[in-house]
Amino acid sequence: MTIDQIIVLFGGLGLSALVAWYFWFSEKKAVKVEASESGIQEAVINVKGGYTPDVLIFEAGKPIRLNFIREETASCTEEVVFSDFNKRATLTPFKTIPVELKIDKPGEYVFQCGMGMVKGKLIVK
Questions:
Q1: Could you say which architecture CATH assigns to the domain 31-124?
Q2: Is the peptide bond before 98 cis (omega within 30 degrees of 0)?
Q3: 55: buried, middle or exposed (CB in 10 Å: 19+, 13-18, 0-12)?
């Protein structure tokens, strides 16, 4: 093996490790959602290749409204599924689609696209 081949090999391995760390091991920044005067905890989630923000923190027992704004037409993100609550919603492109939940039990609850490739998490305290 020549020195050029060794450099390319280690460079490729290093970049692969960086991509794996970013997608699977980097810590996600959670967003704490406060209740409004009406008592509803409301958040806006942009959908474009993923959910932004994708980790949200709520208080148990108060109503939650998630306003999904789908900024793409990719078929993967046309539906959001909350399997813990047996709830799903169709996300129309370029429109705001509200999803309302009331979670009384603290815990972590995953939501995802219909294909299970794009995921987010609700942390209820």
A1: Sandwich (2.60)
A2: no
A3: middle
Distance CA 8, CA 58 (A): 46
Q: What is the rounded end-to-end Cα distance, in angstroms, of the chain?
A: 56
Q: Given the structure tokens 């609550």, which residue do they identify?
A: 85
Q: Is the distance from CB of 64 to CB of 56 less than 8 angstroms?
A: no
- 3-to-7, 15, 31, 103 alpha-carbon distances in Å: 6, 18, 47, 59
**DSSP 8-state secondary structure symbol assigned to residue 20:** H
User: What pTM does this model have?
Assistant: 0.78
pLDDT, tens digit (0-9, with 9 covering 90-100), for 61-87: 999 999 999 999 989 999 999 999 999
- Is residue 101 within 8 A of residue 75, CB to CB? The reply is no
Question: What tokens were used for 112?
Answer: 């995802």
Which residue type occupies 106?
A: P
Low-confidence stretches of the chain (pLDDT < 70) are 21-28
Other Cβ atoms closer than 10 A to 89: 16
